[in-house]
Design brief:
Number of strands: 17
Radius of gyration: 21 Å
Number of helices: 18
Largest sheet: 8 strands, mixed
CATH topology of the largest domain: UDP-N-acetylmuramoyl-L-alanine:D-glutamate ligase
Shape: globular
Strand content: 15-25%
CATH superfamily of the largest domain: Mur-like, catalytic domain
Distance between the termini: 28 Å
Helix content: 25-40%
CATH architecture of the largest domain: 3-Layer(aba) Sandwich
Structural class: alpha/beta
């Protein structure tokens, strides 16, 4: 099979969470273990860092990859979902896996895949691990897909684990309370492996302490605070403080989404622990990596500027914590009218998220092409119940075009609410 045939095979044959929702979520590791065993257990042949959480895990993964690249390590990066291309999921030093490798992997292992009948995600995990082993990476950053304990990536034995902020995303599958959800994420904590808790959520500390104690894993809570010193549409600067004393000043990052700063304490603590377990990451490596995350790793969709006049920004924020910080940043930068192009998937709390946005914005309801997407008409209907009116568009690009017609040069057009809606923006 060629690359296009392989993509059709993967998308149409295998259960896929992005397309089907929780029906495609496998609650055990049996298939992944069987796949990897058939491939010679490639995950045992490279060092790894494992990251779970509700918000911040993706950008934290990219940040750590950029820092390790700056330190000279051949660094693998596995993240999901992709925005434009399947190959975005698997990178080494920022370079996406080749289409030919993907085609050859699936073609050569088709009988194994069909014998096990795994999900789309399980196959992509196996593909990533085989690629990293074949290319002999020094270390790989592995982001969980959903949850942690039963996530397909949770077969690795990392040198470090990181858990970012916990929220109510996917509560229908992971638990009805933050403690239950944190318990699922804490499933990545391994015996003897240090784990960093990146977010300041004291009410969940007992969950992590209990799990870490049970498996005798060294537990570290992020202990620095971030003091933002400058902010623009293209970069932000900040200092790091510990015990009210500045330990690093004048750090810059090219991730301009303000919510990214919430991940910095966990990222910094990870760098400290990595140095303790034998890696060599200097302050200059940290500064260089943090300053060029987008450039080094190809990260997209985080406060991404698509146009300057009028200002058009795309952001993949899609749950309450992320949207809340996004709104704060909008209020800091926009003096004109807000034009909100928004689409969501069916399993989100539409009411809670829409209530975060200003009622006076101009609304353009849209949808993506994935079956999980909430139709633009239904989203509009639910919004009208909350006193919010707008127009519906079945294609995000049509919604953006309509918003541009109505926007003045000082207005902001924001596209958000769903990773899949952002992914379908032309030219992203």
């Amino acid at each position: 099979m060629n690359y296009e045939q392989v993509l059709t095979y993967l998308y149409e044959r295998l259960p896929m969470f992005q397309r089907e929702g929780k029906g495609a979520f496998k609650k055990d590791l049996t298939n992944t273990i069987a796949l990897l065993d058939g491939l010679g257990n490639p995950h045992r042949h490279f060092k790894s860092i494992h990251i779970a959480g509700t918000n911040g895990k993706g950008s934290s993964a990219h940040a750590l990859a950029a820092i390790l690249q700056a330190a000279g390590y051949k660094t693998g990066l596995y993240t999901s979902p992709h925005l434009k291309s399947f190959t975005e999921r698997v990178r080494i030093n920022g370079v996406e896996i080749s289409e030919s490798y993907v085609a050859d992997f699936v073609t050569e292992n088709q009988q194994l895949i069909e014998r096990i009948n795994p999900s789309f995600f399980e196959v992509t995990v196996a593909l990533a691990f085989k690629y990293f082993a074949d290319k002999k990476v020094d270390i790989a950053i592995i982001e969980t897909g959903l949850g942690g304990r039963l996530d397909s990536t949770n077969v690795i034995k990392p040198i470090l684990s990181l858990i970012t902020m916990i929220g109510y995303d996917h509560a229908d599958m992971l638990g009805n309370t933050l403690e239950e959800i944190a318990g699922e994420k804490a499933g990545i904590i391994k015996a003897g492996t240090p784990v960093v808790i990146g977010a300041n959520q004291p009410g969940l500390n007992h969950v992590y302490q209990g799990k870490a104690s049970a498996v005798k894993a060294p537990l570290y809570f992020a202990d620095v605070t971030v003091n933002q010193t400058a902010e623009s549409l293209i970069h932000q600067s900040f200092d790091l403080e510990r015990n009210k004393e500045t330990i690093l000043s004048g750090l810059e990052t090219d991730i301009t989404a303000r919510y990214f700063l919430k991940n910095i304490p966990g990222i910094y603590k990870c760098v400290e622990i990595l140095n303790q377990v034998g890696l060599d990451i200097s302050e200059s490596h940290l500064r260089k990596g943090i300053a060029s995350i987008k450039k080094s790793t190809g990260l997209k969709g985080r406060w991404q500027i698509l146009n300057e006049t009028p200002l058009i920004i795309a952001d993949v924020s899609h749950n309450e914590p992320g949207i809340a910080v996004l709104i704060d940043q909008i209020n800091m930068h926009v003096s004109g009218q807000l034009h909100l192009v928004i689409g969501m998937v069916k399993d989100k709390d539409v009411e809670s998220i829409l209530n975060l946005f200003p009622k006076g914005a101009n609304y353009y309801f849209t949808q993506s092409s994935v079956p999980r997407s909430l139709s633009a008409n239904e989203l509009q209907h639910q919004a009208e119940k909350l006193g919010v009116s707008g127009k519906s568009f079945s294609d995000v690009n049509d919604a953006i075009k309509n918003a541009r017609k109505n926007a003045s040069n000082t207005d902001l057009i924001l596209v958000c609410g769903s990773t899949f809606v952002v992914a379908e923006i032309d030219g992203l």
